[in-house]
Design goal:
This protein has a single domain, classed as Hypothetical protein af1432 (Orthogonal Bundle), CATH 1.10.3210. By secondary structure, it is an all-alpha fold.
């Protein structure tokens, strides 16, 4: 029996007219036989969860570089929080939860080691944007340089989840907003844990609208998005919540993201990646043969390899090639 057929029936009957129905996908670049159990978006979600790039997120920086503590966010836990927030919004708006989850789980696959400082270091060498790189990961680099052959809608959501990108589906727009809700709030939580901030430091003009603590703020922001977007062909916040959210984000850039003690080691991370980039540019024999065989400029291939590293693997490679070792006869 084709059990996926019942899911298609469910979507036709219960999802919003603004949702992206699984049967209406623009499909994949390479045809594959349909699955009897899962929709195409559910298959993409599963492919992402099982890929190597997803597993490496557990050892990639969110904000705090190599934090001494088990409770600071990593790029993986950030991704899971984005997925939870996005699914809650999509379910309430009767959007396609499988598509939302696939985009959310894949949205940061292109991130470098050491967070945005690593992204900045590679961008100084060769044009690098983590959203564009995420698309390259799923289209080219994963599955031994064959690509994951994901649906058009999931790839669009990954490419347009940040910056000025505009997702083509409401599910992609949900992930883009959920990403911001997640990182603003969990970065506050981590900054308080790291004694960079106290709860009292957060301006009352923002907490008075959004809420006094982590859980309340997230719930209030999700509720506002659902209330403002329900039944409409767009995903949005109310003007009051958007102003407070933008203000809180600006506060975090001023107090945490730029120049705080949490960021004091970032220059070392940049120097480390600069050294690795230079080494691989000068000696391509150290790059995987499958990567070298790709039709792309060498600068792109070196960025591909360095960006894929976890924090600890980048440190390991640096120490192996640049740190003097004791002589042993």
């Amino acid at each position: 029996m084709n059990y996926a057929y019942y899911r298609y029936e469910f979507e036709d009957k219960f999802l919003s007219k603004h949702a992206c129905k699984s049967k209406d996908t623009r499909g994949r670049e390479k045809h594959i036989e349909p699955c009897a159990l899962r929709t195409e978006f559910a298959r993409d979600r599963d492919r992402i969860i099982h890929c190597k790039s997803f597993r490496r997120l557990k050892h990639k920086t969110q904000v705090f570089l190599s934090p001494e503590g088990d409770h600071y966010r990593t790029r993986l836990t950030h991704t899971l929080e984005v997925s939870q927030i996005a699914r809650t919004i999509s379910r309430a708006l009767r959007l396609n939860e499988d598509l939302t989850e696939a985009i959310a789980l894949g949205h940061d696959l292109g991130h470098t080691p050491f967070g945005h400082s690593g992204e900045a270091a590679l961008n100084e060498k060769y044009h690098f944007d983590h959203a564009e790189q995420g698309l390259r990961v799923v289209e080219v680099l994963e599955y031994d340089f064959k690509g994951m052959n994901l649906t058009w809608e999931v790839r669009d959501g990954i490419r347009n989840h940040s910056g000025g990108g505009k997702p083509a589906t409401l599910e992609g727009a949900v992930v883009k907003l959920a990403d911001r809700i997640a990182y603003i709030n969990h970065d506050i939580d981590d900054a308080i844990r790291g004694k960079i901030l106290t709860g009292a430091d957060i301006p009352a003009e923002f907490t008075g609208v959004l809420g006094l603590n982590h859980g309340v703020r997230i719930n209030n922001m999700i509720t506002d998005v659902v209330r403002e977007s329900f039944g409409r062909p767009e995903i949005t916040m109310s003007a009051v919540f958007k102003k407070a959210s933008d203000g809180l984000r600006g506060f975090m850039f001023e107090r945490v993201y730029c120049g705080s003690l949490a960021k004091a080691e970032e220059h070392k991370a940049k120097e480390l990646l600069n050294s690795l980039y230079g080494m691989f540019m000068n000696d391509t024999s150290k790059l995987p043969a499958g990567l070298l065989a790709l039709g792309a400029p060498l600068e792109q291939k070196v960025c591909d390899y360095v960006a894929a590293m976890s924090d600890r693997y980048a440190i390991h490679v640096f120490e192996e090639h640049f740190t003097p070792k004791g002589w042993n006869k």
